[in-house]
Amino acid sequence: MVFILGFVVLITWLVKRLKKPALKKPAMAKMNAVIEAYHQHADKEILLQQLSMALRQILLSYRGRSNVAGLTGADWSQEIIRLDRKNVLSKEMITMLSHWPYQKYPQVSDDQIELLISQLTTWSRSLARDHTHA
């Protein structure tokens, strides 16, 4: 009897889990695509703009359009921080992501770009599988 009850609970849990959209893999794929494109073109301005767009798409997936679509500046940064479950992104990188994509010819060093790429790669790996744990 206990075995049957446990089996029913397991099946119910699996069905619920499989019905939820998996968000982590597409988020990681998007980040990787942007980073790979940067390694091809090496244009920091384009990289920052594409990372900003990728992060906005990831936020929309995890938080929902009505919660994040109109966010800018500090509010947008706060949502990025909320998804950063392991505190991977430094304040400098969050500032970079929220301001520099909108500047013509941002003054950003190669070291800053490499740190940003490293932190965002780690950040995307640390995302929750779906929005219920984000």
Molecular structure report:
This protein is mostly helical. The protein has one domain. The chain is built from 7 helices and no strands. Helix 2 runs antiparallel to helix 3 (44-63) and helix 2 packs antiparallel against helix 7 (110-125). The N and C termini lie far apart (36 Å). 19% of the residues are buried. The mean pLDDT is 81.
Task: Tell me the layout of helices and strands.
Layout: H1 2-19, H2 24-41, H3 44-63, H4 65-68, H5 73-83, H6 91-99, H7 110-125
Helix pairs in contact: 2-3, 2-7, 5-6
Short account of what is shown:
The protein is mostly helical.
Q: Provide the helix percentage.
A: over 70%
**Total domain units:** 1
Task: Characterize the largest beta sheet: strand count, sense, and whether it forms a barrel.
Answer: none
- Label the structural class: mainly alpha
Determine the number of helices (DSSP H or I, runs of at least 4 residues): 7
The amount of beta strand, in percent, is under 5%
Q: How does the overall form come out from the CA principal axes?
A: elongated
Cα distance, first to last residue? 36 Å
| H/E series | HHHHHHH
Keyword list:
134 residues; mainly alpha; 7 helices; 0% strand
